[in-house]
Amino acid sequence: MLFNSYEFLFVYFPLVLLGFFVLGRRHPARAAAFLAAASVAFYGWWSLQALPLLLASITFNYQFGQWVSPARPGDEPRRRRLLQVALVANLALLGLFKYADFFITNANHAVQAMGGTPWPALHWLLPIGISFYTFTQIAYLVDSWRGKVHERRFVHYLLFVTYFPHLIAGPILHHAQMMPQFARARTYVLHPRRLLLGLGLFVLGLSKKLLVADPLGQCADLVFDRVHAGLVPSFELAWTGVLAYTFQIYFDFSGYSDMAVGISRCLGVRLPENFRSPYQATSIIEFWRRWHMSLSTFLRDYIYVPLGGNRHGEPRRLVNLMTTMLLGGLWHGAAWTFVIWGAIHGGALVVNHLWRRVSSSRAGASRTEPGRWQRHLSSGVGWLLTFLVVCAAWVVFRAPDMDTALAIYRGMLGLDDSAVATLKDLSPPFKLHEFYRTLIAALLIALLLPRSRQLVAVWLPVPRSFLRAGKPRLPGTVALALGLATGLLLAWDVSRLGSYSPFLYFQF
What we know:
- This protein is mainly α.
- The protein folds into two domains: 6-190, no CATH class; 195-507, no CATH class.
- Helices cover 70% and strands 0% of the residues.
- The protein contains 19 helices and no strands.
- The protein starts with 5 loop residues before the first helix and ends in a 13-residue tail after the last helix.
């Protein structure tokens, strides 16, 4: 069941809202159990075969979460051993389903080179959402071991892991962000203004997906698929495909996150923000503070810091940073293209950190403050370089193999003299004026508009508490007009429903 489907919009979500708040008026515990059951049903709609694996994983991790929590002085060695067992079990499960064939295929190259018999691949179907719910539960286990978990009711843990807005494609959650909310009575009380804000965020996210991401995705798929089939792309064609995918993945995943946050807000639960206008970043360091923020936080807290972080000198820090990004790339998929994507971002982060260190040293030596125009020029150059690195990295992220990626790179640089294919040569053809209009709109929205929560808070007639300090509300009549415009936008979105259009991060 997709968020952008008739079943979800007109059947599932209204029934969940109704059942949750009707039960919540007198029986919050029953409302939590109802929402957990509805979330399990949501996952089962996707994959009934994978449902037992999800429930077994939840039961296993909940029990180990109890065992690894501090109980009495002197039990540290036992708790550490249990934590290690639980972490190995989770990573083994993820590795078996997601990475086994990847490692078997690569090992077979060496086996065949030595004249041996290759091992057969498993060809197991990847359970949807396994990366997200595995990482979520790993964070829970580590935090339980550290003594940070205080809410331990099983129904709340079940709801924490299976909560349908985030289950399939994130954001990656921490127990402290979610489980205490299910223990609060006010969560189960319908709040009209909160509902209005949530619906506004949902409509905005749905529009990102249907009106921007999907049309751009048609072009990106066409370009990358044709290049993979042997087409030699021209400069124009290569950059068109890359820019189309650059904005497709942003609006697709950002749209999903907005919908997840909006749905959750309607239910009285706050999900963490996952995007903060990342394409406005003026450095790759800033980009990773704005893009897929829940994953960035997880990688920092559970990989970078345990590796040593910045506690052992600058060279070790940069090695830890590169290692973290390589593992972050591999988390996205079992292919060398994802590892290379992580390496590109890791290398860019290393260069960015070194450049900042050199710049700080020079600024300290000169003791002069740069002028306003120098700062603007520096920000502009920083933005352009960051955007180009991000675009270049998306090529290997999207390409099915390195041959396709290299062909796209040659086209982007105009290095292939035999490249004659242009947009008009693609088959099936699409309307160029509509594509360019959508691409320009995506560029303006991503670079000029504030992030979704700020936009909706001003857009809709919500209370001042949803706004940042010092930001005035719109006049009531203007806010009402914009609210009506939101309804028209929803109607436009509904008119675009009907075709199967899953979210890109469902495959990761």
